[in-house]
Amino acid sequence: MDYVTLNNGIKMPQLGFGVWQVENDEATKAVSKALETGYRSIDTAMIYQNEKGVGKAIKDSGVPREDLFITTKVWNSDQGYENTLRAFDESLERLGLDYVDLYLIHWPTPEFDDYVDTYKAMEKLYNDGRVKAIGVCNFEIEHLERILEECEVKPVLNQVECHPYLAQNEMKEFCAKHDIFVEAWSPLDQGGEALRDETVNKIAETHQKTPAQVILRWHLQNNTIVIPKSVTPSRIEENFNVFDFELTAEEMDGMHQLNRNRRNGPHPNDMNKR
Ligand SMILES: NC(=O)C1=CN([C@@H]2O[C@H](COP(=O)(O)OP(=O)(O)OC[C@H]3O[C@@H](n4cnc5c(N)ncnc54)[C@H](OP(=O)(O)O)[C@@H]3O)[C@@H](O)[C@H]2O)C=CC1
Ligand SMILES: O=C1CO[C@H](CO)[C@@H](O)[C@@H]1O
């Protein structure tokens, strides 16, 4: 397992495990399998409604708390200073933890213009030692610039949709300049088209690996943090088994050519649902 060092000195596994669209009981099973396999970073959110199931797997696993890296997120309807503090307490209780490693704003919802207040509540949680790191999701460069100008604690990462068909090159460049990691959500294109891509499949054949492993390797070699989701035990293992091969510069270049700026999720400026 490779770790990255975030801009506040905290270490985070570069490969983690996502649990969107997994209900509590199934989340307990999937996270238990992931922890057994060796994953140490789990990505959930209040809106996934599975923090309890995730918490149960953590508790049952017996893995020491300090070896785990647990991420959850404040949902759109909980934004604002006081709401965020309350939502955080509720998430912590559902998870059965006394701190989380990373707390993220789920969407900027720019029409409501309260992500700066939300972030300031997260700074309080950070300064009080209740979260080890804070960051954002789905922020555009203009949103990040406001946080960098108006707040004191730099976000450690921006979690955005990213896969070979949505490479996020501009965001990667901006984040690298500011010592902020990009974390890829839907890193496997939600199990869709990118896994069937001809270039990806040819590279997979060369290395005797699967298309998913090749895509995860591309993310890792781009210095991106990844959180693939699966409820299938064999895929949970497959997605973890990506540290014994490397893509060549030429293969990386071939993968970079696949970008077509094609999203599965909404554009962040269009996500203003509360
Ligand atoms: N901040 C945000 O706004 C968002 C964050 N996220 C986070 O990112 C995580 C990952 O993104 P997600 O959208 O779930 O999509 P992923 O790109 O991780 O793809 C998950 C899908 O791919 C399938 N899959 C997994 N591994 C393989 C494999 N090796 N071969 C073939 N198919 C595979 C899974 O099927 P199966 O489970 O049946 O095995 C599932 O259908 C989420 O779970 C969540 O934690 C996601 C969306 C938005
Ligand atoms: O993480 C995510 C998955 O769930 C949400 C919807 O329920 C999405 O909006 C979000 O991007």
From TrEMBL:
Pfam families on file: Aldo_ket_red
InterPro entries: AKR, Aldo/ket_reductase_CS, NAD(P)_OxRdtase_dom_sf, NADP_OxRdtase_dom
Segments forming a coiled coil: none
Listed Gene3D superfamilies: NADP-dependent oxidoreductase domain
Keywords per UniProt: NADP, Oxidoreductase
Family the entry assigns: Belongs to the aldo/keto reductase family.
The protein, known as: Aldo/keto reductase
The organism's taxonomic lineage, starting at the top: Bacteria, Bacillati, Bacillota, Bacilli, Bacillales
